[in-house]
Amino acid sequence: CYCWFPIIHGKSGYGVPQHFGVFYSMGLALIIEGFLSAAYHVCPNQNNFQFDTCFMYVISVLTLVKVYQFRHPVALDANQVFAILAGIILVSVAGLMLEFSDSASNLLLGFRIIFTTGQFLLILSLSVYFYSLGYVKDDNKAIVTGWSLFAGVKQIFRRPVHTDRLILPFISILLSIGVVIYSEMEKADFATYLLYTFIANVLGFCLYYMVIMKPLHGEFKNFSWVQPTFYFVACGIIGGFAVMYFVQSPAKWEKSASESRSEDNMECMNSWFPFQPFYDVHDVWHFYSAAALFLAFMGLLTVDDDLVATPQSRIPVF
């Protein structure tokens, strides 16, 4: 019911494999995120805050997996994704525990240094992986695995064959550096820093896939670009309003909803919002962000509709 154009039913061997199970997971994660956000607004405490933030990580990781899976349909299985999510949540909890410990300031500094170093090493490793489409080979055409993978960096910059695949690593590195600098300037807590990192990489990966690589390979033919473009533009506009309310909101999750609303939230709401006496500015952020995420999911669902009649052997991998 959300499609504007006639539906072309996909045939086996044609089009980008969709893997709708990931879309179902993304939608379910968004629903659970809504319930958990409501839970910690009704009864704010550190536990509810953790659950709410964790599902933001889940949505970010699933989005990255979905975009990567468009051109690499057999790259990851469910167990690997669950292991990645478990590791992310474990790191997040460890960082927050150190932050809330009065005697662990030195440990927290060391933890953040180790995490940031590991983050950039991971980006470097994934850059080699993406460039080589998952199969890094040495001069003897043997597949490279393990720590030897980092030697592939020298091979890439010495003999760059697919220069367009170097765009994503540069985008990811620049965004990660920007997030580190911004988080230090704003004195962001570890959970917020981790969330900013994921959001930046999701935006960078989507930009790389939809704005750079698809037009570069001659895709988005005829009017197939109209529907996903509408969804993403609407997502950007609504998401911009969401970020505005998130940044300007004086809401305090540590306090009850009534106490939070009493601290200038009503003044910031002005008088335009029809449910002003009940909802505060932070609630408006949730309304807008949920709508923006839904539109983003719809854009991802339709972004490769132009390839539905293209044999998979002719679809470029990037």
From TrEMBL:
Coiled coil region boundaries: none
GO molecular function, one term: double-stranded RNA binding
Pfam families recorded: SID-1_RNA_chan (PF13965)
Membrane topology: Multi-pass membrane protein
A GO CC term assigned to this protein in UniProt: plasma membrane
Compartments, record wording: Membrane
Keywords: Glycoprotein, Membrane, Signal, Transmembrane, Transmembrane helix
Membrane-spanning intervals of the chain: 22-42, 54-70, 82-100, 107-131, 166-183, 190-210, 230-247, 285-303
Taxonomic superkingdom: Eukaryota
Family (UniProt): Belongs to the SID1 family.
Protein name: Uncharacterized protein
Source organism of the structure: Allacma fusca
